Automatic annotation (TrEMBL):
It holds the Pfam family polyprenyl_synt. This is Geranylgeranyl diphosphate synthase type I. It comes from Microlunatus panaciterrae. One of its GO terms (molecular function) is dimethylallyltranstransferase activity. InterPro entries: Isoprenoid_synthase_dom_sf, Polyprenyl_synt, Polyprenyl_synt_CS. Belongs to the FPP/GGPP synthase family. Its EC number is 2.5.1.1, 2.5.1.10, 2.5.1.29. Its cofactor is Mg(2+). The lineage of its organism: Bacteria, Bacillati, Actinomycetota, Actinomycetes, Propionibacteriales. PROSITE patterns: POLYPRENYL_SYNTHASE_1 (PS00723). Keywords: Magnesium, Metal-binding, Transferase.
Length: 376
């Protein structure tokens, strides 16, 4: 490894605490350094781009940093702990969060979400900018356009950041096919989600809704959140095909468990922790596996309530509470909790059976806990 980062590996990379505050700070510093390098580029184009850079910095300043963590510890699973500063590896891993925030910005536009991590979503910020300036046209249309372009810019920056990370060209060449698959899968998974949102969930379509929800989870979340980041890191570290298969067997079920926890938090989570209003997924009408199970298992009265209230953007606190009760009474909440536990167990079994370094195994086991045992 190079020496781009001042922290020694033992300080930044602790297998027993794989997404420690020190690790998250190191990732944040890598992102901040890259964003700072882009400020003169935007300034040279025009002062109008100041808010774009500022908003990018705000959106990238937080988050769980799980995708960078899975990438880094995938590398360690293949190659062991680095003997020198992990700067290039951290920068390459951090580029995954630019890709992730790009997807979140676009996702918020598609879902008409008002908040992201407790602050106004990007399209709402651009909408406010337009309205405050008194510019011509519709502020909401401007907000959507600005957010789409910001998401595109973050996607392009994620590619640039990776290629400027200082990685060995041979190692990067090994890893690029994994990252290219990840980008394709998450985009196609998002389209599958859009299609699923448009399909009816009643009558003979209930089982189909379950099947489609499972497929969306695999491509939009499971591979994107855990499997591909792990495999990307392992490819950088020279991992063989057996390790790649182990990480697939680990990453797919764990990524599913991660998303299922997100689904529960989107309905039952504490807004102070999730950064989004209570029951926001119910207002947005998100066709998650939790909702698919509810439609498949609830009573006729529950179906009637779902048909009347689910997806209503004006849903008030009482309506949220009523739908939460329908979901709980149907057994869907308990079913999803069981699926989280089952998929978590499958992921750990894959690690136990696989051939990987001891620090990699320790870290990926701890990351599995962090992915599913959380309240935000």
């Amino acid at each position: 490894m190079g020496n781009d980062h001042n922290d020694a590996p033992s300080r930044v990379l602790d297998p027993s605490d794989p997404v420690s505050p020190t690790f998250r700070t190191a990732v944040s510093e890598s992102i901040a350094t890259f964003l700072a390098s882009q400020l003169p580029v935007l300034d040279a184009i025009g002062d109008e781009l100041g808010p774009v850079h500022t908003l990018a910095g705000r959106l990238l300043s937080g988050g769980k940093r799980l995708r960078p963590a899975f990438a880094v510890w995938g590398w360690v699973a293949a190659a062991g702990l680095p003997s020198s500063s992990p700067g290039p590896l951290l920068t390459a891993a951090a580029s995954l969060d630019l890709l992730h925030v790009s997807a979140l910005v676009h996702d918020d536009v598609m879902d008409s979400s008002d908040l992201r991590r407790g602050q106004p979503a990007a399209h709402r910020e651009f909408e406010r900018l337009h309205a405050t300036a008194g510019w011509l046209g519709d502020s909401a249309v401007f907000g959507h356009a600005g957010a789409i372009l910001l998401g595109d810019l973050l996607l392009m920056w994620s590619v640039q950041m990776l290629h400027e990370a200082g990685l060995d060209p041979v190692a990067l060449g090994r890893a690029l096919p994994v990252l290219e698959a990840m980008r394709t899968e998450v985009t196609c998974g998002q389209f599958l989600d859009v299609v699923a949102q448009a399909q009816p969930t009643n009558g003979h379509g209930r089982q189909r809704a379950l099947d489609e929800a499972n497929r969306v989870v695999e491509y939009k979340s499971a591979r994107y959140t855990v499997q591909r980041p792990c495999q990307f890191g392992a490819a950088l570290g020279g991992g063989d095909e057996r390790l790649q298969q182990t990480l697939a067997d680990y990453g797919s079920p764990l990524g599913r468990a991660f998303q299922f926890r997100d689904d529960l938090l989107g309905v039952f989570g504490d807004p102070a922790l999730t950064g989004k209003p209570a029951g926001d997924d119910l207002r947005e009408g998100k066709r998650t596996l939790l909702v698919a199970h509810t439609y498949a298992q609830t009573t006729p009265a529950g179906l009637a309530l779902l048909d009347a209230l689910f997806g209503d953007p004006g849903l008030d606190a009482d309506g949220v509470a009523r739908l939460q009760q329908v979901i709980a009474d149907s057994g869907a909440k308990q079913a999803v909790e069981r699926m989280i536990s089952s998929n978590h167990d499958r992921a750990l079994a894959a690690l136990a059976a696989g051939e990987l370094t001891d620090p990699g195994r320790t870290a990926l086991t701890a990351l599995a806990e962090a992915a599913v045992q959380r309240d935000y």
